[in-house]
Amino acid sequence: MTVGDVVDVDRLVAWLHRFAELVEQEADALTALDAAIGDADHGTNMRRGCRAIVEALAANPPADVATFGRSVAMTLISAVGGASGPLYGSFFLTFGTTAGATDALAADQVGEVWTAAVGAIASRGKAEVGDKTMLDALVPAADALREALADDRGLDESFAAALSACAAGRDATIPLVARKGRASYLGERSAGHQDPGATSSTLLVQAAAETVTTS
User: What pLDDT does residue 214 have?
Assistant: First the structure.
């Protein structure tokens, strides 16, 4: 649980459980988005990975944030096919290593850790905002989260701001022409379609907004 604006490992585990629930609900929709501009397997892959995460966290409950991040990362890398496994894996591995062997994160640390984790995706995928990828959702989310926390708006309001920015970034991928990944092979034909990675990323932020809070 959270105490004030401190997030402990139990709350982080709850975050991933909620993410898994949302992915389960939206898996078919994610696959449909991917069918238009990718390999038609994003929902299937993410569902498999999230189910594996739930099992891994139950089998070996993490004692600190570093262990949490490493466990989730390794599970995603091994269970999720395509580019999504390594990209999400980079996010969580960096999330854990940036936080270190602590059993809780203060609010200001949450923004720092989240920003570093999103940066790891950019580095791994060699992508940037505007390429029609998950970064179009996650970078605005990280910026909004960090700015809100810097203004002492608290975790609840800060993650609400992050989710709003994330959803706007997701929707902004629709008119973009993909410059990275499988979708880039389509060229101009990739425009007019919502990016599946940005969509699953928004579920990740939604799950955080619903769990990594003070309520």
Answer: 58
Are 38 and 30 in contact by the 8 Å Cβ rule? The answer is no
User: Quick one: tokens of 18?
Assistant: 């909620």
Residue 2 is predicted with a pLDDT of 39
Reduced to 3 states (helix: H, G, I; strand: E, B; else coil), residue 29 is helix
| Residue at 1 is within a domain | no
Any bridge partners for residue 8, and if so which?
Answer: 104
43 found inside a domain: yes
Range(s) of the domain holding residue 94: 6-211
Question: 3-state class of 138 per DSSP?
Answer: helix
CATH of the domain at 189: 1.25.40.340
Q: How far apart are CA 124 and CA 21, in angstroms?
A: 27
Q: How many domains does the chain have?
A: 1
181 confidence band (pLDDT: 50, 70, 90): confident
What token pair was written down for 20? 């898994």
The per-residue pLDDT for range 78-133, each reduced to its tens digit, is 999 788 999 999 999 999 999 999 999 998 899 999 999 999 999 999 999 999 99
Residue 25 CB-density burial (10 A; 0-12 exposed, 13-18 middle, 19+ buried): exposed
Q: Is the pTM of this model over 0.90?
A: yes
What 3-state DSSP class applies to 104?
strand
Please indicate, yes or no, if residue 207 is contained in any of the structural domains.
yes
In a domain, 67, yes or no: yes
Phi, psi of 178 (to 5 degrees): -65, 135
Query: What are the φ/ψ torsions at residue 121 (nearest 5 degrees)?
Result: -65, -45
